[in-house]
Amino acid sequence: IIDVEASDFETGIVAGTGPYAVKELVTDDHLSLVPNTYYWDGTPKLDELTIRTLSNGDTLSAALQAGDIDAAYGMAYEAYPNFENGGYQFSSIQTSRAFFGSMNMTSPIIQDTAVRRAIAMGINKQDFVNVLLNGYGYTATGAFPDSFAFGQGIQTVSFDPDQAKAGLEAAGWVDTDGDGIREKNGVKLTIRWLTYPSRQELPLLAESAQSTLKDIGIDVQINCTKDHNSIRKDPTAWDIWVSANVNAGLGDPQNFFDTYCLDESVKNSGGHHSDKLEKLAVQLRTTFDPAERAKIAVEMQQQLLDDNSYVFCSFLRMSMIMKANVSGLEAHTCDFYELTADLDIQ
């Protein structure tokens, strides 16, 4: 837990309750931590802990194999076999970090309900997880895994290219010039897919969707950039923004809706609006029984899926890979609490 008012994030002086405190912060390079002498739940075992940023997958794999680092998170999936021996340990768990797309409801093409439905039906979630992620993930129906009460009982369309084609045909999207891409009233069915490279799954998802959507006559133009947050604020620059977020980091559904889906949401860059969703959000904020909150959250997700204004593709199977002499480092279901006072290196 961080006291935001008492912290200075530019200098790395953070007032928090975790087992370690910031010693040195170097943007995009490394973070040095030392024990928090005021920690409330035990004594941290390491005198110093350094977190490094290694964005290149080959570099990260080589660093762990060479012993330059003791543990890694975000390893490229194709590198996993390098560590499936007695010299390394894996700690894996399903998290609520979702990979999902937000439709830009101000885009003329996206405003066509047949197009949104075709996109949802044209993404092969199962192949994405099984093939591109080597099984290290879980297909998604809604915003939350079904391990939560508010992630159960939700219905959405399945991968069905034939139905997607039929829906586009009925809506007037046809390939009249034979180039494989549909058009309507002289406008090509081109979708501008905005995403970013810092989560290795997102470029893979973009490439997978580009391939399967092309099969139904949709041209996907990928813009994978670290500047996605500034670009998404310009609604004329994209049609679907695909991102990753821990949707239930606190074990509760409200934060996701408040952040992404409502009129006042800071990340509702596509202008999504639903009268029903707004009313349900008020109910959610004023309901305190967990079972009743779960029912409202399910109804809210169903509204998003019925509108095809969001498409939820998969959830992360978080995996920490570490040397055999590391102990106390375990993947956590909320994707945030890995560094504990129990972390040690023998």
Condensed summary:
The chain has 346 residues and is α+β, with helices and mostly antiparallel strands.
- The gross shape turns out to be globular
Number of helices: 9
Summarize the main sheet: 7 strands, mixed
- CA radius of gyration is 22 Å
Structure, described:
With 346 residues, this protein is of the alpha+beta class. It is built from nine helices and 14 strands. Strands 4, 5, 6, 9, 10, 11 and 12 form a seven-stranded mixed beta sheet that branches. Strands 1-2-3 form a three-stranded antiparallel beta sheet, with no helix packed on it. A two-stranded antiparallel ribbon has the order 7-8. The model has no long low-confidence stretch (mean pLDDT 94).
Question: What's the arrangement of secondary structure elements?
Answer:
Blueprint: E1 20-26, E2 30-35, E3 49-52, H1 57-66, E4 71-73, E5 88-103, H2 113-122, H3 125-132, E6 137-139, H4 161-170, E7 183-184, E8 187-188, E9 190-195, H5 201-214, E10 219-224, H6 228-231, E11 240-246, H7 254-260, H8 275-285, H9 290-307, E12 310-323, E13 326-327, E14 344-345
Parallel strand pairs: 9-10, 9-11
Antiparallel strand pairs: 1-2, 2-3, 4-12, 5-11, 5-12, 6-12, 7-8, 13-14
Helix pairs in contact: 2-4, 8-9
